[in-house]
Amino acid sequence: MRFLFKTSYDQDLGLFRDLVQRNWYVALLAGLLVLPRLVPEYVVDLSLVFIYGLCGLSLMVLAGYTGLVSLGHAAFLGVGAYAHVFFTQTLGLPWLAAVALAAALTAAAGVLVGLPALRMTGVYLTIATLAFALIIQEVFARWEHVTGGLKGRAVDKPVVFGVPLGGDVAFYFLCLAVLAGAVWLTANLLRSPTGRAWVAIRDSEIAAQSMGVNLALYKTMAFGYSAALMGVAGALFAHKIGFLAPDIFSVLLSIQLLLMVVVGGLGSLHGALFGAVFVALLPVAISQARDAVPTWIGRIGALLGKGAGDAAFTVTDRFVKQPGLEPGIFGLILVLFILFEPLGIYGRWLKLKLYFSMFPLYKQATFRRQKAYMRSERLR
Amino acid sequence: MDIVLQLVLNGLAVGCIYGLVALGFVLIYKATELVNFAQGDFMMLGAFSCYMFVVWYGLGYWVAFALAIAIVGAFGAALDATVLRRVLGQPQFAVVMLTIGLGAMFRSFASITWGSEIYTLPTPFSAKASRVGGVSVSHEYVSIIVGTVVLCAALYVFFTHTRVGVAMQAASQNQLAAYYMGIPVKRMFSLIWAISAGVAAVAGVLLAPVSLIDINLGFIGLKAFAAAVLGGFGSIPGALVGGITIGLIELLSGAYLPHGFKDVAAYVVLLLVLAVRPQGIFGTVGRKKV
């Protein structure tokens, strides 16, 4: 086990823990830069991972760091996407200006939602954001001359500073650059007084208030920042899917975004990115499993005899080809994570690391969940 | 005038459904402080199981109704005993995500078991109407209102006049004290889940002839949230009053406001209530003061 000997406060404030960690991140970035050459067939999926990563960062700031759970983030994504398309295609603004304006507009929407949210706690806020998302979705469907209504609206390929970035690889690098910038910005924000105030609000509003944290200001800021990130993600998402329709930005997408931060691990930026990888690649994995699983089951069945193998294959095949199966699998994963690994993938990663660094001395109790039976959200 | 009366009647009926689903939320919330986002999906399961008994197995409507309530209620209790009890005392967020995940699983289960088509449930009230003073009163809507009234009366008697009901009230007011008094709190919670799921199943079966049965029936649960919040989360009469208010607002705004308002009216009301009076009409949940 390696001990870090800290000699100055700057080390505590630094972006990286030590040089080793920094070198790992540099290596990761280098790896991502050459990745399109290594796996050209997955470049399209990877740019989606980066866009989901942005969404994950946004929701992580709000849900994971400030403790405000929003079920309406798909609406912010939609506002960003539609605003970006409106600014670039209807008004003909340059790409970067359009993204900035879309982010600003989404941030304004976020603050608008955040203001009434100041009076609410816990599940009320979740319900309010859900209501907001449903209203916004209706607005997308009705406000036809901006959004194209239910018919939808086609999105052009991105052109940044006159350079067309429509190709898969070019778009991959665009998304990577935006994500890297957003991660850097968010990480910096989180180690600033603002980030500490957010964490304090998450852990105890009363304690934060007593320490002089302006709850209204910081909660609104969290909403605004989170929504702005979502707006940027929305702009990229619009280019990614190439066609906007109101039913894309449904409650189900909001749930999927929340699933991302829960599965990744609440309260860590790593978690947001792990979750993004998981959520973006899960449909790919499911569709591959749909083809593979019946064959395996058929082979296992064939051990009992030819007829049993064929029957097992047919039954499983019919089962896995059901269209309604996928949301159920998402739900199951969510339930299993909440029950058995509430710290998410990042928590599992920490446990693994600790296990190996303390090798024979690791004990499970280090991470035991703390129950809080006596804490009540009700007023006594 | 007749049109207004007609709308009010239909609004009352739809509102009763919202009220019943909201009642389910409130029962669980009062007892365990869990917010069950899968309540609407219990309703969907209830409607589907009743449909299955009536159409697939050819049972009578009332038998199927009773079986559907029993099955969904038992399922609710089993769910509490196996899954939800593990998250008691965890942050509320975990519970919200857990029930959302469970809801997705229920929808998936329904789509695999019963198919993703849209079904109609034949009932003794289907497509019958009487005229009362110039207003055409459809029996389906009347059945919803009567069913709600009967159910609420039964629940009222149960919670105030039976031993188990009073024990449940005690358990929901103070778990620890109830436990010391010898009340089996865990069993009470399971029973409350069963009742809540059963109420949702009743709502589903009553709604089935009016709306059609499909796997997305559960999204009515979102509007029932508006009802529960309007009434003050945690107040049983509030849930019903809130539900009926939301139902009336929805139908009247559908008739008198521009197209599109009907679908969002409930949510607009919800946001207004949360912004202006977060504790709702009959609110018992206040802001924590330092």
Q: In words, what does this structure look like?
A:
The complex is a heterodimer of chains A (380) and B (290). Chain A has 380 residues and is mostly helical. Chain A is 72% helix and 2% strand. Chain A folds into 2 domains: 42-281, no CATH class; 284-360, no CATH class. Chain A has helices at 9-13, 19-38, 43-65, 73-90, 95-117, 123-142, 144-147, 168-190, 193-203, 205-210, 215-241, 251-264, 269-302, 306-320, 325-340, 344-357, and strands at residues 153-154, 159-160, 163-164, 243-244. Chain A is globular. In chain B, strand 1 (129-132) and strand 2 form a beta hairpin. Chain B has one domain. Helices cover 71% and strands 3% of the residues of chain B. Chain B is built from 11 helices and 2 strands. At the A-B interface, helix 6, helix 10, helix 12 and helix 15 of A face helix 4, helix 9 and helix 11 of B.
In short:
The complex is a heterodimer of chains A (380) and B (290). Chain A has 380 residues and is mainly α.
Keywords:
heterodimer; A: mainly alpha; 2 domains; two-stranded antiparallel ribbon; 16 helices; 4 strands; 2% strand; B: 290 residues; mainly alpha; 11 helices; 2 strands; 71% helix
What series of H and E elements makes up the topology of chain A? HHHHHHHEEEHHHHEHHHHH
Class by SSE composition of chain B: mainly alpha
Specify Rg of chain B, calculated over alpha carbons: 19 Å
Give the helix tally of chain A: 16
Provide the gyration radius of chain A in Å.
23 Å
E-strand count of chain A = 4
Whole-number mean pLDDT of chain A: 84
The H-and-E topology of chain B, N to C, reads as HHHHEEHHHHHHH
Question: What's the end-to-end separation of chain B, in Å?
Answer: 52 Å
Largest inter-chain contact set: A-B, 57 and 52 residues
The description of the largest β-sheet of chain B is: 2 strands, antiparallel
Point out poorly predicted stretches of chain A.
Answer: 372-380
Rough outline of chain A: globular
Biggest sheet details of chain A? 2 strands, antiparallel
What fraction, in percent, of the residue positions of chain B are helical?
Answer: over 70%
Q: Which overall shape of chain B is indicated by the principal axes computed on the Cα atoms?
A: globular
Number of E-state strands of chain B: 2
The helix content of chain A, as a percent range, equals: over 70%
